[in-house]
Design goal:
Elements (H helix, E strand, L loop, with lengths): L6 H11 L19 H5 L22 E4 L3 H13 L3 E4 L6 H13 L4 E3 L5 H13 L5 E8 L9 H13 L19 E2 L5 E6 L5 E9 L2 E9 L6 H10 L6 E3 L2 H8 L3
Parallel strand pairs: 1-2, 2-3, 3-9, 4-6
Antiparallel strand pairs: 4-7, 5-6, 7-8
Helix pairs in contact: 1-7, 3-4, 5-6
The protein binds NADPH dihydro-nicotinamide-adenine-dinucleotide phosphate (NDP) and the ligand O=C(O)C1=N[C@H](C(=O)O)C[C@H](O)C1.
The site of NADPH dihydro-nicotinamide-adenine-dinucleotide phosphate has 26 residues, from α1.
Length: about 260
């Protein structure tokens, strides 16, 4: 587990330890190096000490790495995994398209595979799919995402991917709802095809997103709320178990859900 002491990393450690088909072999988090995993995550009795460096890992003892760190670390961790034939499931957001291209190339040549997903919650996956379905039928579109105030990136990875998918599903573009005067930033950030994204960061939030479509006399709001980081765990566990069968680089968990749940 890369980022074992983080909010997501600790939840993933717990989920893996509670899953009969998985074993937690190593936990990494540089700032917590040498500390007992239980001290950092309240998961008692694992007998694992947190490692500070990738090079302390024993590649032969790791089938799948999971990364919830930050973008630059996650990119380097993935390249390490490609070199050492370790499959990797990445939930970290903020990787650039160039970095993703490089990982695609690296994993096309590696014995191991990589999955990158901006959101492992089933409801968020469905929100993105429903938004794609609605896109061609409406004139305007705005995305509002709400997150806890410790989040490093804005907009969220989920909002960026949602906007990209909505834009691909929309011929031409959305109309621009013009105002005659506006305060800088008040209308959010405009991305592709006139879709606006607004990012709220607030204590009390976990991860929430609303996609709003408008047309004459009506709006459609598609909203997803993660109230708890456990919402991501079934998707993460599914990805851990499926990654060895997914050659090269996979983006999102949709194709895995297709196989397991027959979603499309
Ligand atoms: N795909 C999904 O479904 C989800 C994705 N996320 C994404 O996951 C990422 C992490 O989120 P969150 O857990 O809230 O963040 P946190 O800041 O709580 O956790 C990140 C952890 O990674 C550690 N870290 C930094 N660099 C390294 C490294 N090189 N090796 C190992 N550990 C490292 C950090 O240590 P330190 O504090 O010392 O820097 C920290 O403990 C974010 O990008 C977020 O957007 C979050 C939720 C769901
Ligand atoms: O940082 C978070 O918390 C989350 N990050 C991901 C994102 O950027 O989309 C997924 C989810 O929204 C939680």
């Amino acid at each position: 587990m890369f980022g074992a002491g983080g909010q997501m990393g600790a939840s993933v450690c717990r989920a893996v330890l509670n899953d009969d088909d998985c074993e937690l072999s190593s936990a990494l988090d540089p700032r917590l190096a040498g500390i007992d995993l239980g001290q950092a995550t309240s998961i008692l009795g694992t007998g694992l000490s947190i490692l500070g460096e990738r090079d302390a890992l024993e590649p032969d003892k790791v089938d799948v790495a999971v990364d919830f760190t930050e973008a630059e670390a996650s990119f380097e961790n993935a390249l390490f995994c490609a070199r050492n034939s370790i499959h990797i499931v990445i939930g970290t957001t903020g990787l650039t398209s160039r970095q993703i291209e490089i990982l695609k190339e690296a994993f096309s040549k590696s014995n191991s595979n990589c999955l990158i997903a901006p959101n492992f919650a089933i409801g968020a996956v469905l929100m993105m799919r429903f938004a794609e379905l609605a896109a061609p039928l409406f004139e305007t579109c705005e995305i509002i995402e709400f997150h806890h105030n410790r989040k490093a990136d804005a907009p969220s990875g989920t909002a960026l991917v949602t906007a990209g998918r909505i834009a691909s599903a929309k011929n031409g573009g959305f109309a621009q709802d013009v105002t005659s005067a506006e305060l800088d930033g008040a209308r959010g950030s405009r991305v592709d095809k006139n879709i606006s994204i607004h990012s709220v960061r607030m204590a009390g939030m976990v991860a929430h997103q609303e996609v709003i479509f408008g047309t004459t006399g009506q709006t459609l709001s598609i909203r997803h709320d993660s109230y708890d980081r456990n919402s991501f765990m079934p998707g993460v566990l599914l990805a851990i178990k499926a990654i060895s069968e997914r050659d090269g680089l996979t983006i999102g968990i949709e194709s895995i859900l297709d196989d397991y749940l027959g979603l499309r």
